[in-house]
């Protein structure tokens, strides 16, 4: 790699649900900011979803949902490579190659596989092998860095292991050994104060209508201090969410109003709704424009896939030559 060139950062997006505010502040916004400092690629991991999604219409719909979501959040296809995993067949070829270099025991220690077993499920081989597919996604693209949250560094370990092992056997430079790029991202609370998560039913979905958005803001759990009581902003769900969206000055002003008393949690919730609506209204409009135009989404993803396949074909050419598939 030319050390003077920008490093390549690759982000995978699992098409399982329309994002919520936690996904936006915790994953989407930090990933999109990398465009300023890196060559970036974003792919929709549709074959990963096949380990669990069995309804073809739902799978097709989820892919369009996440494509429209990321575009609505500001992904600019002219500045990044945005593609569907399934449009890059080299990923699956590399996945097979990688499978010949991993001990089955290492896959059996994978978190998702172990979780499924612990829940008493009989996981399919896709769940066992999904870390290999993830490694192939990354390695086929010669990614230098993969953005991860602070607690997810180990997700990349198998990928790094495999690349290092293959380089040891076939020579340095066969594969690029990627590094984790730890992104600073806040932990976003849900309306009940616990971590916002689809499975907990406490989310603020990104593109809901403004009435529903207001209703959700007003339903945020607070304690029942009287209106006149001075209140502590820090640690309250309303304020923590407000701080993510509002300017530092607006956040300071709310903190002072709460501390002074005579300003209730209801007022704070209304203010939260207003800043959220200002942020989300334009994104909601863009989302519905894209979501109602699958032809345009297909066109954007197809264009991205052409560029992704060029990179992937070069990687496979190099790998095949080194391993003796000629
Ligand atoms: P998930 O919705 O569980 O598929 O999450 C996808 C990604 O969104 C995670 O890997 C996190 O980076 C981010 N994320 C999800 N929920 C939150 C949250 N409550 N706060 C911050 N980041 C989150």
Give me the Rg, rounded: 22 Å
CATH architect. name of the largest domain: 3-Layer(aba) Sandwich
Task: Name the beta content range.
Answer: 5-15%
Global morphology: elongated
CATH superfamily of the largest domain: HUPs
| Arithmetic mean pLDDT | 94
How would you sum up the major sheet? 3 strands, parallel
- The CATH class of the largest domain, by name, is Alpha Beta
Ligands present = adenosine monophosphate
Task: Give a description of the structure.
- Helix content is 53%, strand content 7%.
- Helix 4 packs across helix 7 (125-139), helix 7 (125-139) crosses helix 8 and helix 9 runs antiparallel to helix 12.
- It has 13 helices and 5 strands.
- The chain is elongated, with a radius of gyration of 22 Å.
- The chain has helices at 21-33, 46-49, 56-72, 90-99, 104-108, 111-118, 125-139, 157-170, 210-218, 237-245, 248-260, 265-291, 294-323; strands at residues 8-13, 39-44, 81-84, 145-148, 179-182.
- The protein folds into 2 domains: 3-187 and 293-323, Rossmann fold; 207-287, Tyrosyl-Transfer RNA Synthetase (Orthogonal Bundle).
- The protein has a 3-stranded parallel sheet. Strands 4-5 form a two-stranded parallel sheet.
- Strand 4, helix 8 (157-170) and strand 5 form a beta-alpha-beta unit.
- The protein is mostly helical and 326 residues long.
- Bound molecules: adenosine monophosphate (AMP).
- Residues 14, 22-23, 26-27, 149, 185, 187-188, 195-198 line the site of adenosine monophosphate.
- Adenosine monophosphate binds at residues 14, 22-23, 26-27, 149, 185, 187-188, 195-198.
């Amino acid at each position: 790699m030319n050390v003077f060139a920008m490093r390549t950062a690759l982000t995978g997006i699992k098409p399982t649900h329309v994002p919520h505010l936690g996904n936006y502040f915790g994953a989407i916004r930090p990933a999109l900011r990398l465009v300023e400092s890196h060559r970036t690629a974003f792919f929709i991991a549709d074959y990963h979803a096949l380990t669990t999604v069995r309804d073809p219409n739902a799978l097709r719909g989820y892919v369009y949902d996440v494509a429209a979501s990321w575009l609505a959040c500001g992904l600019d296809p002219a500045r990044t490579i945005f593609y569907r995993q399934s449009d890059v067949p080299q990923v699956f070829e590399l996945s097979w190659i990688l499978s010949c270099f991993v001990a089955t025991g290492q896959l059996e220690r994978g978190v998702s596989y172990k979780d499924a077993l612990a829940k008493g499920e009989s996981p399919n081989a896709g769940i066992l092998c999904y870390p290999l597919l993830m490694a192939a996604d990354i390695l086929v693209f010669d990614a230098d860095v993969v953005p991860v949250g602070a607690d997810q560094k180990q997700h990349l370990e198998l990928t790094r292991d495999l690349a290092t092992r293959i380089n040891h056997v076939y020579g340095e430079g066969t594969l690029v050994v990627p590094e984790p790029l730890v992104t600073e991202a806040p932990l976003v609370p849900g309306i009940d104060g616990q971590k916002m998560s689809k499975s907990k039913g406490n989310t603020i979905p990104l593109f809901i209508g403004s009435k529903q958005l207001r209703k959700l803001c007003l339903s945020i759990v607070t304690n029942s201090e009287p209106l006149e009581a001075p209140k502590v902003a820090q640690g309250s769900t309303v304020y923590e969410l407000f701080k993510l969206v509002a300017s530092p000055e607006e956040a300071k002003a709310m903190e002072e109003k709460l501390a002074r008393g005579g300003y209730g949690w209801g007022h704070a919730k209304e203010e939260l709704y207003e800043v959220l609506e200002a942020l989300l209204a334009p994104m909601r409009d863009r989302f519905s424009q894209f979501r109602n135009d699958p032809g345009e989404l297909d066109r954007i993803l197809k264009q991205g896939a052409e560029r992704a396949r060029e990179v992937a074909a070069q990687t496979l050419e190099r790998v095949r030559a080194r391993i003796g598939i000629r």
